[in-house]
Amino acid sequence: MSVPGHSPPFEVGVESARYELRQSGEGLCLAIGGDWTAFGLGNLPTEIMRSLTEGSRPKALDVQSLGHVDSAGALALVEALGSTAPLEASDRQDLRRLADLVGAPSEARQVTEPAASAITTFFARIGRQVESFIGQIWALMDFQGRLVVALGRHLRNPKRLRLTPLFSVMEQAGINAIPIVMMMCFFIGAIVALVGANLLSTFGVSAFTVELVGVAILREFGAVIAAILFAGRSASAFAAEIGAMRMNQEVDAMKVMGVDEFDALVVPRVLAALLMVPILTFCGDIGGILGGLLVSWATMDISPVFFLERTVDTVSLTHFWIGLVKAPFFALVIAAAGCGKGLAVSGDTESLGRGVTSAVVQSIFLIIMFDAIFAVIFMELDL
Q: Structural domains in the chain?
């Protein structure tokens, strides 16, 4: 059997590649001639594969009439022969060298990695999560260190502080949040009063609902609810604003102009949070007390005057100060999480979405964690 074929050259001075399939003592033999180069091959590789039937790969290679050969020709031969063995057995050194070049990737593609077991996959996933968590903690510590340095620069030179963005953030993140904070704390105070009245009335001490509302709102709920709402509104806004600037390369432009991104973007937001979260906490305390007052008046016929007088007489001012002391710490972690995640955004929108989500989740997690730490500290101090 003999199947000849050739391809017209694509470049002047190049001899067109040709081939012939014939039977020999070793089986089917592929005899090639001409220049097996990128310019001489044409559609010859496709013709060869069409000529071969299933399981009829050539076992031998005849290169007596072969002219020039390059990697394209060697790759076509490897695909036709199914292996690099005939090329490696050739007398031509250039063909053997090209066989090593084009054969290694082909063999590498055939190597399949063994499927990982379920236990290996489980522990690998845990390891990646732990590594990611440690990386986030490290990034947060690095950000806090840079923030402390930036705040120190502003303490030494207060003129560095940018008042316009400071007041703008205070208005957007703080003043505009007062209604929603008071409303939310109002409902929390009402719920605490309802639960307390329902429980304490069974013991005949419904009047203690006043103390329950006062302590719960002033000590815990006022600060925590204000901080969580501030995190939902402002941590996400900080991350989105700074992240969008990162995507648009505005932060890089600021660095080129010699403007420190912490001075321009981070410090005003952190200071605004430190100033506004205590104010929001105070407003939340008022809303919570009002909610408890109205529910007590409606369900237990406790007059507003009696409610307020009993609150002043029985609820220590220490509970108010404990709630207010926690507010600056909540503000710091919220602003740090929002600004830090914003600065960590890369150049795609998916990264921006992850940063905004992570900023809110991290802020709320840190608020609850710090609140638990403060609860233990104040318990040890007997406060």
A: 2-110 (3.30.750), 144-380 (no CATH)
